[in-house]
Known about the structure:
The protein has ten helices and seven strands. It has helices at 16-35, 68-87, 108-121, 135-144, 150-158, 162-165, 170-175, 185-193, 197-208, 239-242; strands at 60-62, 98-101, 129-132, 167-168, 182-183, 212-218, 228-232. The strands form two sheets. The protein has a five-stranded mixed beta sheet with strand order 1-7-6-3-2, with helices on both faces. The protein has a two-stranded antiparallel sheet with strand order 4-5.
Amino acid sequence: MFAPVARCRRTKPVTPWRRLRWATPLVLSAALGACATPGRLPAVPAGLAAQSDIGIPDARYLVTRDSSAMAEEAREAYRREAAGLAAAGVTTPPPVSYLAISGGGDDGAFGAGLLVGWSESGSRPEFDVVTGISTGSMIAPLAFLGPRYDALLKQAYTTVSTDQLVKAQVLPAILGSADSLVDPKPLANMIAHYTSQQMLEEIAAEYRKGRVLLIGGTHAARLAKRAWMSYQARRTWPRSQAG
């Protein structure tokens, strides 16, 4: 039998002032919601729509809508790998290895540490396909390029804290002068710091061998429909166009 639960007794009388104090946050929230909520803007402003086309065919896939293009890319990757192996005189295909890295914010340090330790053990394979989402999407390019990027991976996850990357801007967002509740600039600056033209060229070189790097993302305009996109780092472009 369960023991009866003792009833809690109020130790202070509920005065009109206390009722008002409890109600004030609710009233303010309702007022701000009614007066200050900005309207939803287009996902891509009309003046920037042309720039959203990065000029690389099949560089992104909305996989929940149509996965045929992505499936064809997988077949192309196999053909590129087979051609490279044949040119090298390899008749028996090597084992295939895939790596999928989950999200988790600063818990991505555990995934980074696993990869570094895996390299130190001497048993880490070269992955044919690497993909990641959220913080995993930032680990993925470094994991894709192999142990020579372990030092950079370790630095990124041991010298930078969440507090440095997440800067709240709640009041500006409520008042409509900011696009989001969090300032994206610190994270964008960190990604730019750890990404170089050489890295892009190395990813492109591996792509030509038949390896594939897929970066998972969210289509914000279709979030309610759970539409996901994978952005494929498959080719490089001149530095003059990289910005």
